[in-house]
Specification:
Structural class: mainly alpha
Oligomer: single chain
Order of helices and strands: HHHHHHHHHHHEEHHHHHHH
Number of helices: 18
Number of domains: 2
Amino acid sequence: MEKYRWDFNLKIRLLGETLFNLLYWMYFPFIAVYFSQVIGLTWAGFLLMIPPIISLLFNLIGGYLADTFGRRPIMIIGSSIQTGMFALFALSPSPWLDYAAFLGIGIGTAFYKPASDAMVADLVDEYNRKEVFATFMTMNNIGAVLGPIIGAILFFDHRSLLLWSCTAVTLFYTVLLFIQLKETVPQKNTSAEFSTSQVLSTQFKDYIAMRKDKAFMYYIVAGIFSVIAIMQLDLYLAIYITEYVSLQTLFHWKEWLIQIEGAEVLGLILGQNGVLFVLFVLPITRWLKSWTDENVFILSCLLAGFGMFAVGFTTNIWVLFCLTIIFTFGEIVRAPVIYNFVSKHAPANARAQYMGAANMQFTLGRFVAPITVLLAAWLSPIVIFSVILLSAIISLALYKRLFRLPTSTIK
């Protein structure tokens, strides 16, 4: 990549967000287990439904404020909130205060992210954005692969050390942002008054207007159906593998014999998914650089939908590993284009708001996706996998409809 594309702002963020994501994945996968132990399974299940909704709200607020007051102050505020909440979590004597701190960390992250994504679009030309977004995703997914391995040791036995490490890293990153980060917003409203009523009133009007953006609404709804299919790796696919995949031979050479079954197979598939993402998101993004967003979205739907659907016809572990490659590539090809589309489509003066609103597809998709788990109580696996395929096909049809709209509505 050309040197000019890696502005110093991007280098700071790549370093800081890589470290933070590594620490984040050291504690996040174990939060549900922790809260179920300290406050009970029922309360934990209920309380863990709240953070995605809160994150959606603060994504929207953070996006509006980043367009109004600039990317830099909102990113610093978001990072500062995370620092304070990690410290509170480390000092907390109560599980309820732990939960408040956990919620606060999510608020800080949601506040920070739209401004961060918009800054990439501010600094990088349209042709190269996919590759830059893919680089950030690669570094984030390194954390997603390594973090849970380290966290499995630290979270339960040395949680205080882990949380203070998170506090130190986010504090260092916040100070670095304050000293080194430069503003990139194309145009900000320097006369805006920071009053809660004015912010909420103006933001409400802006998002009502955004709902009239037909192309953007097609993009959000198509994304929801796509997320429903992709999320099944952690939902119905996990149930199917643990229930139906029996003990099988993984390797057999002379006297050496390694056999695995459901839970072990699932662990290998989850690891395979993470490693594939880290290794291939950048090469595939470069390979598909000349493809249109429409063709990439369609390819993603086909790979994810049919890859998942085919799982319903087998319990052979080696076939499952091959199918994991197919549906993981469906996730990989889509990832950088999600932000690239919004970067191109959003007006320059509302870019962060659109970035924040675009996250609705993930929040709503994750909210609806567990319906496959509920349906599993009454329907056979092949019917469930057919529902997953149908979701991917609906997403494909909506993406095709999106790109058939008048060109004046799509940039």
